[in-house]
Write a structure and sequence with these properties.
alpha/beta; two-stranded antiparallel ribbon; 7 strands; five-stranded parallel beta sheet; Rossmann fold
Amino acid sequence: MFVGDSMTIGSAGDFTWRYRMWQHLNACFGGPYRIVGPRHTLHEPAEDAATSHAYRDPDFPERARGHLAGWGEGWLHMAPVIGETVRRYRADTLLVSLGLIDLGFYTDAEQTAENVREFVAAARAAAPHIRAVLMPVIPNVRAAADPAFGAECARFNELLAKAVADLSTPASPLLLASEPAGWQTDLATYDGTHPSERGEHLLAAAFADAMHQGWGVGGPYGTPA
């Protein structure tokens, strides 16, 4: 199950990195799998709501569009709902990209890190053997322009790494994804934050490579030139 903010839900007309991951899994996964989640839509800017079905590839099947992501949502919003969502959809693997919204609008680094721990505890209460890959906050235009915010992002990433190290267990392993290789905001985003087509590939690659290297799931991702 994909869990994330605006970079994960995507906007009308996007492919999304979720789509890129679906393509990757189809190409290399050695067995059956399901993509699950309560939501299937994209964000529609004209309505400022998650009402769009206009994926760039209309052949992206409905069964692969499931997610738990929302425009403007963060760890603060997902921690209270992840347990019931995991239980209902029987998720066993979470790919999580959150944090920028929290730090930008809701909580400081320490509070955000506490919400990470609450999120993990709730997911495990619903599925004791769940595993997860957690993405740090990646470079973005605000962090580059605002040194104080950039420092808060760096601090959170330190705390996220500590949380992963503290909380990972053999029964319920956690992985910290690496910052997407070659991430440059002018090339990997269309507005300094949200992924361009290149950025979609780079985000999917970071998750795919973490799963392959950490758990032997799938194979290495072929990043774009």
